[in-house]
Amino acid sequence: MTVFSVKYSRGSFIFPSAQPAPHRSFTEEVTVLNGFFGKLATGGRAYVMGDPMVPNRKWHVYFASNESIFPPPRMVTLEMCMTGLNSESASVFFKKDDGHNAKQMTKLSGISDILPEMEICDFEFDPCGYSMNGIHGQALSTIHVTPEDGFSYASYEVMGFNPGAVEYNALVERVLRCFKPAEFSVAITVFGGHKWADSWGRSAAVDGYASRSHVEQEIPGGGFMMYQCYSSCPNYYSCPKAVKVAAPLPKQIMHCWEEVEESEMCCAVEKKGFTFGEAR
Ligand SMILES: C[S@@+](CC[C@H](N)C(=O)[O-])C[C@H]1O[C@@H](n2cnc3c(N)ncnc32)[C@H](O)[C@@H]1O
């Protein structure tokens, strides 16, 4: 089998200095990935997306593809990273003496309602924690939850579905309902053109959350990525819908250095295929 395309993506590490090789820096990760995929037609492309005004909230993406197989089929990937989970929502992911298991966590949390068609294989950790993988036709999803107070975290990822059949904003809200995070980021990758993507090319407008940054980046083969960060508003009722505060920000001028360190100062190495997304 030949490789069609590869994408590696992650947010900023909460504990960067605790990461083992090759995750000590994005540069190191890219070097390893290029060893495997750098010879594909597009070469390895690496991006660090984020607003320099919002520290430690960057989206790191490595992408390489065999361009000869483009144009690619229509495809959307959604990735959400959530921190500061509401303690009541997080408590669902602790095992209880009454045999509270992964199936109950899936139901009680609302995970089963995110995309009800998904067939879910779920797993509970001891004494807490939860992971699941879901499948429906060609669509795949995965969730991982670390519910411990102080460093709580949940991730949600879905790909391979027909974007026309799923409304972006409503999907984001169903995910948030499960975890009620204090902060979250959402990254979408769209192949096959903007226009058809309907709701998928726009900022999510989420009650109770304000958008802190919005960055877009074109990728080879007609794809584009959008990365947004949100924070919950202390006063829910006076919080404007995120779409109002997500109006385009003034363009930021990015500075580039030769190395991208996990200190997340920002930016990229142009000549090696790094680019830094432009904040809007
Ligand atoms: C959801 S798991 C992380 C799963 C990871 N992404 C994976 O696929 O292996 C993280 C949560 O499970 C808990 N946990 C309990 N036992 C664990 C184990 N053996 N390995 C990883 N996490 C464990 C952690 O404390 C944390 O709350």
TrEMBL record:
Q: Which UniProt keywords apply?
A: Polyamine biosynthesis, Spermidine biosynthesis
Q: Which GO terms describe its cellular component?
A: cytosol
The protein's annotated catalytic reaction(s) are: S-adenosyl-L-methionine + H(+) = S-adenosyl 3-(methylsulfanyl)propylamine + CO2
Q: In which pathway does it act?
A: Amine and polyamine biosynthesis; S-adenosylmethioninamine biosynthesis; S-adenosylmethioninamine from S-adenosyl-L-methionine: step 1/1
Molecular function per GO: adenosylmethionine decarboxylase activity
Q: Which InterPro entries match?
A: AdoMetDC-like, S-AdoMet_decarboxylase_euk, S-AdoMet_deCO2ase_core
Listed under GO biological process in this entry are: spermidine biosynthetic process; spermine biosynthetic process
Q: Which SUPFAM superfamilies match?
A: S-adenosylmethionine decarboxylase
- The domain of life for this entry's organism is Eukaryota
Please report which protein family the annotation says this sequence is part of.
Belongs to the eukaryotic AdoMetDC family.
The protein, known as: S-adenosylmethionine decarboxylase proenzyme
